[in-house]
Amino acid sequence: MRTAVVVALLGLGAVAAATGLVLQLHAYPLLAKLQHDIDTISVSKGEGVTAVVYPPGGLPEVRHNLSLTATTHVEGDLAAPEIAKDGDVTVWKRATIVKEDADQLVLSAEVRKICLDRRTGEAVAPCHGEFYETEQGERITARGGQLLQPGLNFVFPFDTGQQDYRWHDTVLKRPVDIHFDGEQLLQGLDVYRFEHTVPPTALDRFAVPGSLVGSPEQSVDVTQYYGVTRTLLVEPRTGAVLSVREDIRQELRTDAQAEGAGTPVFAGELRLTNSSVTANVDEVKKNLPRLFLITTLPVGLLVAGAALIAIGVVLLLVHRRGLVAGALALVLGACLAGTITYAVTSGSDPDDALDLKNVVSSSNVDYGLR
Length: 370
What we know:
Blueprint: H1 2-31, E1 39-53, E2 61-76, E3 89-100, E4 106-117, E5 131-133, E6 140-141, E7 165-169, E8 174-186, E9 189-209, E10 219-235, E11 240-253, E12 263-272, H2 274-294, H3 296-319, H4 323-347
Antiparallel strand pairs: 1-2, 1-12, 2-3, 3-4, 4-5, 5-6, 7-8, 8-9, 9-10, 10-11, 11-12
């Protein structure tokens, strides 16, 4: 009877420990990764915004109290040469267009393509075909091993920490530290809040029609200044950005003008809509059970398995019976559990469903680039 108890303890311990080990060492890197075939659309809104608009056939002008809609489409570029099943790099393209609601005039637009580390979310290089474009026909592309858009651009790492990260600012064209600012509840999810403020920063210097800046001169040289306060709500286990709020201030200043005295290019807040936030939350809630199986559960199984094996070994040493049966239970339990767990998790790999041999390269067209 005692031998049967020892065998059972060792066998169950081996099963639990082997399952936890395979989940941690094999399933986690296999499943906790950014997907190749992402295809999402999100919408941000702004009310009471002051901005420069471009009427068809007319000169640019400043308008106040505008209602704006910013639409962002993110899709995976499955035809990119960096894409491989179970590869460490994925390639995403993002197109954003900002329109004022009344006349549907385009305020700004951009298209960009980036290679990302599938676990950290960081932009990586070399990246064939990496680019960004904010003016039609003026595409900026990466050369050689150049990292054109460094930092985090879309998501935070899996298991996001309570620390600073480098978030790529698409206006400054460089990453800026974004700081952990606390925890809060968002539609039933515990999330981390990250925030940073970019003070008014000089960008480009160029000439604009005098009428735009209230000057009688036909053309006036100005410097564009940009600042933003950005708040992101992040689900830490997946690194998904669930909510975005940006309070943006841009103005054109002549050499004689101080901060705040120039002509506003953009002054207002853009915030992800409730429906877009809900869609993001729902997607994360769908993925969290899978993450539990490859993060929390393995630790519990390893602890339980180690405890059962320890008890079985102690009983073996005390009674000195069932050594052969106990050893066989350990070996068979570990082999059986490891094999089954490996097969099941391998069959759950989302990359297996991708057909990368018959991919037609998609191309973002007509996103409002002027």
